[in-house]
Amino acid sequence: MTTAKTFISKCLLAIALAGTALGAIAGPTSFRVDVNTTTLTGNGFLSLAFSNLGAAGPVTAQVSNVTGLVTGSSTTGNVDAVSPGVFAIGNGPGPDNFLDLEATFGGMFSFDVTFTGAFMDEVGIDTSNLFVYLFDSNFNSLAGDANFGVANFLVQPGVGIVTSAQFPAFATITAIDATAVPEPSSMLMMMTGLGLVGFTARRRKSRAEEAATA
């Protein structure tokens, strides 16, 4: 009987702990963008523009880990310098939210972008768009599409981030691994698992004390 109870307890513990590994894996919200300007020369701007459509909720795109020959920066609209080399670009309230990185072309550039906001919990069709452009010193498009740039990100409510490196010769996008976010049921299983761990530990301690006094 004792062996059977021990076996059942171990099975329950294994099931509960296995449940803690289950979760809702949200699509990635962080990305690495590599921009190739080896076919370009002179000075210009690596620019990012973020805007929303209609009633899209607030979203922030944080840009960090910028590499390449960047000599300065300027901002327009809802853009904040969080720390040296780190910028937070909002998708509203207006459409003119720009981060312009002054660049010397002819080499490789890269940056990370992370999207934050409640868009996964929202319902609707109104989206937000982050566009990546390569401009000359007069803000004329040097590569890609004059309206959509060399790459863009579409933030869709309830769906996540849809990426598009429209011109692979100039830009590539790599998703950074998503983080597992436990669902409420998984959280319950995790708490159950922890409870069983504590119960098992108490039983082991009690048996050890009984054996010592026997």
Automatic annotation (TrEMBL):
Pfam families: PEP-CTERM (PF07589)
Domain Ice-binding protein C-terminal: 180-204
Signal peptide, first to last residue: 1-26
Keywords associated with the record: Signal
InterPro entries linked: Ice-binding_C
Protein name: Ice-binding protein C-terminal domain-containing protein
